[in-house]
Amino acid sequence: MSDSVSKQMNVDTDIITLSRFIIQEQQKHQEATGELSLLLNALQFAFKFIAHNIRRAELINLIGVSGTANSTGDVQKKLDVIGDEIFINAMKSSGQVKILVSEEQEDLIVFEGGGKYAVCTDPIDGSSNIDAGVSVGTIFGIYKLQQDSNGSIKDVLRPGTEMIAAGYTMYGASAHLVLTTGNGVDGFTLDAQLGEFILTQPNLRIPEFRSIYSMNEGNSLYWPEYVKDYIKDLKELQSNGKPYSARYVGSMVADIHRTLLYGGIFAYPADSKSKNGKLRVLYECFPMAMLMEQAGGLAVNDKGERILEKVPKGIHDKSGIWLGSKGEIEKFKSYIK
Ligand code: AHG
Ligand code: MN
Ligand code: MN
Questions:
Q1: 186 CB less than 6 Å from ligand 1?
Q2: At the top level of its lineage, which domain of life is listed (predicted)?
């Protein structure tokens, strides 16, 4: 089709798919073996398959309301379990993954074969939102096995700065994949009819300031005083003559997606008594922190320390976390005593 015809018909005939993007990125690195590309390819299949199941589940639930579904009495497998199984199978069959940490598995999984990567995942994040049709997602972080390692827990009990890639896919009206391989952040949108993720947001940068805060304020009873002071001040009139806006979906992926695009701050502080956070270091905090930093934002713990430099002691360790626009995180840090 000549240029003018495709323009007349408003058809972009030269779109960048995720597969094309992965190959282009690989070609930039002469030393690349193609193994990470194969792994990313297996990941995108897992995301498409999970997206497909979420779309179907919504429909099945809707049919259920009218009383015609589940007539056989079959209990639908919960999406947390389906997502986990899809993820495990995709990683196993890629031949590139040696170690898998999943929120849904108590122990880490060690695959047979010679894979060189360790993947940490929250297969379905925000699952309490799923029956209401609110966005949920899959979060992942990738490490390369340490030199001479045959794959052990030591390959994932490492600081987040050693991850080589991270991202999430948010399943909503369409699926959005946000990815970093340590060279900025790129956003892709799934064209479900084409079956391809299309590059829609190249080189995403988070705005430096935005008066939006995103936290479960129902927990304020458990917050330390400096957090209460900080939030109280956000509700005062700011220099623009307005207080901050509150936005909280309750799915970390959706709250982080909005924060990346619009700016602002997302936080889940630890309980001041037990000192326990809710969000898990390896498959929630680290991947989102890497994305934020790569997009020009910041990610810190309740003490204001860079979260990516922390070393987890267990695969399901939790942490308090604050992440978002650089200016907003710096403002929060000024409240820490
Ligand atoms: P998950 O569904 O993987 O267990 O994660 C839920 C997390 C996260 O998505 C969200 O930010 C947070 O829990 C919400 O917690 P609250 O309901 O306590 O606000
Ligand atoms: Mn989660
Ligand atoms: Mn989950």
A1: no
A2: Eukaryota
Burial label, 129 (beta-carbon count in 10 A; 0-12, 13-18, 19+): middle
Q: Whose CA is nearest to atom 12 of ligand 1?
A: 250
Ligand 1, residue 128: give the atom nearest the CA. 2
Cα(133) to centroid(ligand 1), Å: 15
Domains of the chain with bracketed CATH: 15-201 (3.30.540.10), 212-333 (3.40.190.80)
- Residue 228 confidence (pLDDT) above 60: yes
Quick one: which of 286, 320, 308 has its CA closest to 120?
A: 286
Q: Is 0.90 topped by the overall pTM?
A: yes
Question: Relative to the alpha carbon of 129, which ligand is closest?
Answer: 1
User: Which atom in ligand 1 lies closest to the alpha carbon of residue 122?
Assistant: 3
CA separation for the pair 79, 57 (Å, rounded):
8
The structure tokens 């997606």 sit at: 257
- All residues at 6 or more sequence positions from 292 whose CB lies less than 8 Å from its CB, including other chains: 206, 256, 260, 298, 299, 323, 324
Confidence of residue 70 (pLDDT cuts 50, 70, 90): very low
Q: What is the dihedral of CA 256, 257, 261, 262, to 10 degrees?
A: -50
Q: How far apart are CA 31 and CA 240, in angstroms?
A: 50
Q: What is the pLDDT of residue 64?
A: 53
172 closest CA partner among 132, 215, 120, 140: 132
Cα 264-267-271 angle, rounded to 5 deg: 160
- Are the CB atoms for 214 and 247 separated by under 8 Å? yes
